[in-house]
Amino acid sequence: MSPAAPPSAPPSTSSRPARTSRLLDWRVRFGVLALIWGFSFLFIKVGTEGFAPFQVTFGRLLFGTAVLAVAMVVKRDRLPRGARVWGHLTVAAFLLNALPFSLFAYAELTIPSTLAGICNATTPLWGMLLSLVALSEDRPTRVRAAGLGIGFIGVLTVLGAWQGFSGLDVTGTVLALLASFSYAVGWIYVRRTLSDTGVSHLSLAGSQVGLATLQLAVVTPLFTSVPESVEVVPLLAVIALGALGTGYAMLLQYGVVAEVGPTTASMVTYFIPVIATAAGVAVLGEQLAWNTPVGAVIVLAGAALTQTRASRRTAPPSRVGMRPAAAGKVGTRDGALAGASAPLRLGAGPGPEARAGHTATETHP
Q1: What pLDDT tens digit does each residue of the chain (365 aa) get?
Q2: Are 171 and 53 contacting, i.e. CB atoms less than 8 angstroms apart?
């Protein structure tokens, strides 16, 4: 990121186009990020047509690690140090990468990619539910509690509960929901153990994905055999899933979070199921009943409500005429620091793999 202009520099007409260019640039990257993560479920579906689920996950992690490793070399970033950090990263790699990626791959053997994408959108719901127990700073409000209830009504709508879940593969659906649940558990764990390590987000993310790759390298040979033939399309899908959906998408969100903040970047969560559904229907020809999109909208509405925060009331000045603290002023150094240090909302921002690093990958599918 280029250094900021000196405060003494007066605004000029020539600086406006540059500002507009940067604004459009993050929006373009935001859109690309949503597309990549939305299409990830399609890539998983296509990948499982030629490879076993564990093989799809291993390939995804391998290519994702390669992209992040190159980025670390280019930026001359160092690996984390200390047995404690590596121990926590190993657990995070399992909860945020190895386990949910594998669960989604197995789920899509029997359920459409559209349903998998919608199940991924329940991560903020699980996160809010778990945070009430695990994170003392996340106190429930009426709005957030209502959002939780609305979100799970949306899940029941997607699944067609009034029809007795007829025509639904229960096992595949449960696996997809467990994958989203694993994301939520993983992010609570990360917030408690890796929030103040002093290590760069890129280094943490690259190390975490690398550890997940090693975990799958051990597990995959035990449960799968080498495919007799390798089909081109599934192979390309796995490469795209790893290089784009796990590696490049992380780097994209690094920039978006750094430029516009985690709150705006986390909004990508609400575009992923929409794109996943459109891709599944348009490219794979998957059927879509009315309750699927309707339920998805309800899920997203509930998820959005669970991410609201109670507004903090500013204490009145103790003396007449005293000016309020300037920390919140737009353009002041303290205000900028306050905004930059705001924590990312839990579960809003799978993955995703997002963000950035451990502060930008909560939406990763």
Answers
A1: 443 333 333 444 444 444 434 545 788 888 999 999 999 999 999 999 999 999 999 999 999 999 999 999 999 999 999 999 999 999 999 999 999 999 999 999 999 999 999 999 888 888 888 877 766 556 667 887 888 888 888 888 888 777 766 677 889 999 999 999 999 999 889 988 988 888 888 999 999 999 999 999 999 999 999 988 899 999 999 999 999 999 999 888 888 887 887 777 777 888 888 899 999 999 999 988 888 888 889 888 888 887 776 555 444 444 444 434 333 333 333 333 233 333 333 333 344 444 334 444 444 56
A2: no
| HEC secondary structure over the chain | CCCCCCCCCCCCCCHHHHHHHHHHHHHHHHHHHHHHHHHHHHHHHHHCCCCCHHHHHHHHHHHHHHHHHHHHHHCCCCCCCCHHHHHHHHHHHHHHHHHHHHHHHHHCCCCCHHHHHHHHCCHHHHHHHHHHHHCCCCCCCHHHHHHHHHHHHHHHHHHCHHHCCCCCCHHHHHHHHHHHHHHHHHHHHHHHHCCCCCCCHHHHHHHHHHHHHHHHHHHHHHHCCCCCCCCHHHHHHHHHHHHHHHHHHHHHHHHHHHHHCHHHHHHHHHCHHHHHHHHHHHHHCCCCCCHHHHHHHHHHHHHHHHCCCCCCCCCCCCCCCCCCCHHHCCCCHHHHHHHHCCCCCCCCCCCCCCCCHHHCCCCCC
Distance between CA atoms of 208 and 357, rounded to whole angstroms?
A: 9
